Amino acid sequence: MGDCSFGITGKDFVILASDMNAGRGIIKMKSDENKIRALGPHLAMAYGGETGDTEQFTDYVERNMRLYHIRNHNALLPPAASAWIRRQLAQSLRSRKPYAVNLLLGGFDTTTSLPHLYWIDYLGTKADIPYAAHGFGMYVALSTMDKWWFEGMPKEKGVELLRKCINEVQSRIVVQFNFNCILIDADGVHQLDLSASDPIADLSRAPEKAEVEVPNPIIAAPA
Amino acid sequence: MALFAPPPMYADPTMAADKQHAFNPYSENGGSILAIAGADFTVIAGDTRQSEGYSIQTRYARKVWQLTDRCVIATNGFAADGNNFVKRIKQRLEWYEHAHQKQMSIKAIARLTQTMLYGNRFFPYFAYVILGGIDEDGTGAVYSFDPIGSYEREACRAAGAAQSLIQPFLDNQIYFRNQTPAPGAEPFVPGRLPLSTVLGLVIDSFTSATEREIAVGDGLELYVVMKKGRTTDDLVGSDNLIKNMQVQELGALGEGGSERTFLVSLPLKRD
Amino acid sequence: MGSPMEYNGGSVVAMVGKDCVAIATDLRLGQQSIGVAYNFDKVVAVNDKLYYGLPGLATDVYSLREHLRFRVNMYRMKEEREITPKTFTHLVSSSLYEKRFGPWFIEPVVAGLPQPTELDPHPKPFISTMDTIGCITTPKDFAVAGTAADKLYGAAEGLWEPDLEPDDLFETISQTLLNAVDRDCLSGWGAIVHVITQDKVVTRRLRSRMD
Prior knowledge:
The complex is a heterotrimer of chains A (about 220), B (about 270) and C (about 210).
Chain A: E1 4-9, E2 14-19, E3 22-24, E4 27-30, E5 36-40, E6 43-49, H1 53-72, H2 78-93, E7 101-109, E8 114-120, E9 126-128, E10 131-135, H3 136-140, H4 142-148, H5 155-172, E11 179-185, E12 188-192, H6 199-205
Antiparallel strand pairs in A: 1-2, 1-10, 2-11, 3-4, 5-6, 6-7, 7-8, 8-9, 11-12
Chain B: H1 13-19, E1 32-37, E2 41-47, E3 50-52, E4 55-58, E5 64-68, E6 71-77, H2 79-100, H3 106-119, E7 127-134, E8 140-145, E9 151-154, E10 156-160, H4 163-173, H5 195-212, E11 219-226, H6 233-236, E12 246-250, E13 260-267
Antiparallel strand pairs in B: 1-2, 1-10, 2-11, 3-4, 5-6, 6-7, 7-8, 8-9, 11-13, 12-13
Helix pairs in contact in B: 4-5
Chain C: E1 11-17, E2 20-26, E3 29-31, E4 34-37, E5 43-47, E6 50-53, H1 58-79, H2 85-97, E7 109-112, E8 126-130, E9 136-137, E10 142-146, H3 149-159, H4 166-181, E11 191-197, E12 201-206
Antiparallel strand pairs in C: 1-2, 1-10, 2-11, 3-4, 5-6, 6-7, 7-8, 8-9, 11-12
Helix pairs in contact in C: 1-2, 3-4
Keywords (chain C): Cytoplasm, Hydrolase, Nucleus, Proteasome
GO molecular function, one term (chain C): hydrolase activity
Pfam family, one (chain C): Proteasome
């Protein structure tokens, strides 16, 4: 609940942003915690919820996505990955100790060249939507996205909208947040530096600087 | 062996609180009321069942009352509060008539109702009130209130146990919500339906509510207040009578105003 | 957390017509008072003569839908024929009762046109509904479920009449749904209506109030 994350889809990309706070109750212990995890070459999620559950669950998801990739030589596409993750949460919900993890799953479908964004909560509720928020973002920034989001957004507009949302959170919510942001497109998962004046231009100028560690990068097939 | 006896209950301060019984001055007596305004008439209706929980206290208890020649009141919620509120408002109307030698207008009765309800802000009458009648320029008027006196003039309003069943139907049939006139046709204007249509809608509303809501049924009392000089053929004409429906004209309460009030009663299902 | 049946919101209604049935749902998915999505379809086709709707807790909408898809596919492979509306209703009912003491928070509504057989050459249009643990009701007129159930009962009771032709049934079910969900905070945000006849299914998306 103390968390805050955003997801925005555009013409050929999806942006995920998450706050970087870690702590318990009113005490903040870290303000540089990365709460976005790459799950594959074109898949990542921003997560929040009960500390401990979050790390356990994201590790579990990440390794299973990797296992599927190794076994089938193809990563799960975003719709299939969303269904698998949702099911894990739904089954966990009726177990002795459910995972309390909310997440935004973003991915780029390389077969159709379409971006995907899924809003998933700890109950296993899944919504397939063009823009989404979790935590505080739901209260203050959903309306901002309703107003400014449009179909087929270019990357620059996506970042602009994300900045509007972050601004809303920072001006309306008492808790102070730093934000961590990634962008997924046909080329994979990239880090976005929101402190830069034009992170998209920086990305196209030096993509190697924006690399995100993807679990066990694809092993080249033997010739 | 008193040494091993448990301490008396009064010795434990936490137990003392459990012995207190809160008196609840309110009850909920079911039933539903409804009013619809026309161009030159208003229909105010209520069922006659009075219940508490799953028990029917009586199959005939009035919820609708004639106040003046051009105003009728309906109350719903806690019957004792509703009845007492009507009694008090009738007294205030009598005083007004003695002081001013005329009956109070529905607009003024509406404001009086607000003041009286809000006067009990911290121990409210648990009554949802609807006023129906003819306003000063001869148009049908409906005023609806919450128990502490918030009010609004509307074209129609349902209240009570079957409010959630009836109001969406009225939104559709009276306010024409989610309906679009055919291209080139007249736009829909709420509050202009003929009496026969309105009567049909009111009776349908109550038979529907009776079908699905256990707190509604037994009988329907329907007051029609008509503007002076308006024809009464569409109500008293024998071909307009539904089976078992009775129409009776209520005599004038005051002098001068020639608005006419009719009481239509018909049975509803008793199960 | 409040009632699981009211956590996400949403409503479904089904109606019987003359040789046709209709089923309709709103499209809202919420988290209590916050609207999250306006594309959450709660009605699913089993085949082109049988549809069902699952209003209730959204996570269970997915889980039960996945479960039923699996069971219907197994039925199809084993029996080499399509499931009838009545059999499907009992399949849903037993799936719900299996979780008697930790239920799916769903009140399903089923609508279908049974196919003529030698034993029953003129089958009647079929609708049914269940509570969360699978107690079946098979109304002759209409079935409602979800957070706007009371409003749907009132609107349907006032608007529905016997033997409606497909076009009139569409109008009736649409007006019933729209006017009911407009008075419900937790339902609305668009709607989808399916009218099933022997030769085709007509699916229409309705524009509605978005508040």
